[in-house]
Amino acid sequence: MRKVNMRQLAAWAGIIGPALFVAIFMIEGWLRPGYDPLSTFVSALSLGPCGWIQITNFIVFGLLLLVFTRAVAAEFPSGKASKGGLILLVIIAFCYLLSGIFVMDPTGTPPDQASLHGTLHGIFGGIVFLLMPISCFVYLRRYRVDPKWQSFQWWTLAAGIIIAAAVLLMTVATKLPDIQAVFKDWIGLIQRMAIVPFMIWLFTFALGILRRIK
Question: For the chain, what is the total number of helices (H) and then of strands (E)?
Fold first, then answer.
């Protein structure tokens, strides 16, 4: 009975974490004076007097995702994605947590003036955006062969494609000056097109696990 309760708590962490993370950065972005969600990164909410809200949001989500990995490990103790998928989720969780601890530099900071914490934030953020679509595709391999999870395969495929496309566009838009001028007013939206589908995917993943706990 105790093991079942721990699995349920871990699954609930996977449900609450993504929903809370998105709700907080959406509400905070809406309420923050001068902040434009369409053109500004989510991490920019960590700056300023109220920055502690988004900093805490990063840390809490990272911790809840780590807790959720316990439910994932129990659901898939062996077979495809049982190790690789779990490792990816753990890395993503730690990177979100560390993205809160190491705050980004203000947008437009020249590379030669970047702080250590800003540089680390960029590294951890880069890892997160790289691994989010990969984790979807890794679990897709499991969903295709697991009868209990086959209903999730098409949503997971769609989420992986959407996230990968958004990450690719965001990377191009921030690295190439000519392209950057075109998308500078939409970079926040593009980033959210990667983050939000991943959070929805995690939410449905956790909900699926919760429903399968007997």
Answer: 7, 0
